[in-house]
Amino acid sequence: MNSAPYSITVQELAAAGRNNIPVQLQSAKQLIYSSPATLAFNSPGAQGFGVKRAGLAVPESVMLLVAPGCCGRNTKLLSQIPGYENRFFFLLMDESDIVSGKHLERVPQAVCEILEFLQKKPSVVMICSTCVDALLGTDWERVCRKAEAEAGLPVRPCYMYALTREGRKPPMVLVRQAIYSLLEPAERNPRAANLLGYFSPLREESELYALLQAAGLRKIQEISRMQTFEEYKELAKANFNLILHPEARLAAEDMEKRLGIPFLEMQRQYRLDKIHRQYELLGQALGAPLEDSVYREKAERAVAEFSARHAGKRVAVGERLNANPFELSLALIQYGLQVEEIYANVSPEDFFYLRALAAWSPMTRVYTNLSPTMLNYNSGSAMVDLSLGADAAYYQPDAANVPWDDEKQPFGYAGLEALLQRMDAAFI
């Protein structure tokens, strides 16, 4: 058996096409290992916003984790983060529960016990379940309705089902839908808009805020900035939702159906022309052109100065960062850098970028973060000056690294400038 780490050039990938992704890049078709890129997902409570922490995005909410001990072990770490004290509770499953499903009978009682323990009544109890119940076929909607009837407050499911991450509705899509499901129809405010997609706010310096305000919007709302449940309910008054992450699309569609709130969509980009084009399209949709020239010119100067200093330097790009690794790689190549390697899993949606990458840098190699063969990866095969992402730092230990995974989210021209500043400092 060949033990060399699997890789493929972007040229080969693009030629294969979106319907012929190699099996080595598909987690459902091979054994996988917990590489640096998958640790945060396989243990969602360990860091970042996995299902458990994301499920508590609703202000004043608490969570009941229904799981075997092994699935909940990392949640204890989360409970030590300021703001998460007394928000996580556990209903542990034993071997008999796993076989029979008898634990489900105890869920309403557990919810009631949580309410008795807490001095202040929560806004909602989120029930977080694991792959065990995915295999049992548990109807969590029914279980939550029963618990809600007995407890007298909203109870909602969120699914930490790693088995469904390749499906049409993976866990992080469903949890986004769940956290907006408590909103009820309200009178619309024509000067209010919601930003959907992230569980933490955009960086304050993002020009998106100023551009939306210039278009007449006075309330730009993000669930991550809501401190109380009363503030959360204001989200139902928005004139429209602006999707900033594709995994929020299902939530936006649900809000349009239930609340009558339409939605628009943008994506995080690091290429100057694409950032500008998205603002053009957004302005057209709003009927108020967005004048972004001041921000664009500032970012253009930053790119020109960065390129003059670092053109030709070699970088490696991972996927544990605030970017699509293929779009970011394309941007960096266009700014004069050499992207030697990309460590990321490939989806059909990535082929738009892969085709462009094949034209700009056909020999850039893509490594999967899931293949056990990556245990044999040797960074000596492609020495680089800088790596981007925590996973890339693992594979390239001798290179400077920019993790670029802050909780506050970069977006637009300001996001690009901030990244270039971090990279510039790391190169020095």
List the helices and strands and how they pair.
Layout: E1 7-9, H1 10-16, H2 39-42, H3 51-54, E2 62-67, H4 69-72, H5 75-78, E3 88-92, H6 95-100, H7 107-117, E4 125-130, H8 131-136, H9 140-151, E5 155-160, H10 171-179, E6 189-196, H11 207-214, E7 219-221, H12 229-233, E8 238-243, H13 249-259, E9 263-265, H14 272-286, H15 293-310, E10 314-317, H16 325-334, E11 338-343, H17 351-360, E12 365-367, E13 386-388, H18 390-395, E14 400-402, H19 412-427
Parallel strand pairs: 2-3, 2-4, 4-5, 6-7, 6-8, 8-9, 10-11, 10-13, 11-12, 13-14
Antiparallel strand pairs: 1-12
Describe the protein in words.
By secondary structure, this protein is an alpha/beta fold. It has helices spanning 10-16, 39-42, 51-54, 69-72, 75-78, 95-100, 107-117, 131-136, 140-151, 171-179, 207-214, 229-233, 249-259, 272-286, 293-310, 325-334, 351-360, 390-395, 412-427; strands spanning 7-9, 62-67, 88-92, 125-130, 155-160, 189-196, 219-221, 238-243, 263-265, 314-317, 338-343, 365-367, 386-388, 400-402. Helix 7 crosses helix 9, helix 10 runs parallel beside helix 13 (249-259) and helix 15 (293-310) packs parallel to helix 19 (412-427). 39% of the residues lie in helices and 15% in strands. The strands form three sheets. It has a six-stranded mixed sheet. It is built from 19 helices and 14 strands. Strand 8 (238-243), helix 13 (249-259) and strand 9 (263-265) form a beta-alpha-beta unit. The protein is globular.
Summarize the structure.
The chain is about 40% helix and about 15% strand. The chain is of the alpha/beta class.
